[in-house]
Design brief:
The chain is mostly helical and 81 residues long. It has a single domain, classed as 434 Repressor (Amino-terminal Domain) (Orthogonal Bundle). The protein is built from six helices and no strands.
């Protein structure tokens, strides 16, 4: 299955490499030097939402876009890791 930003949806990402996406989010957050709390505050999500994404329990495209914007990265960073 190919996942691109054009066909990204919650069911697609949950069924595919959701752990890889979560790991990419965590590594990107750490590379910028943000804690979970700092990222949550910056992108307007809760700590629990960030944690769920990093654990692979959530791959909501809207949330991923907000995180990418907060980290000043293209959202594809999370999909290509």
């Amino acid at each position: 299955m190919t996942v691109s930003i054009n066909n990204l949806d919650a069911s697609t990402t949950a069924a595919s490499a959701h752990f890889d996406i979560g790991d990419a989010v965590r590594r990107s957050r750490q590379a910028v030097g943000y804690s979970v709390d700092e990222l949550a505050l910056t992108c307007g999500l809760t700590d629990a939402e960030i944690t769920n994404i990093e654990l692979g329990a959530d791959a909501d495209p809207g949330k991923l876009q907000r995180i990418a914007a907060a980290l000043q990265l293209p959202v594809t960073t999370f999909l290509l890791s």
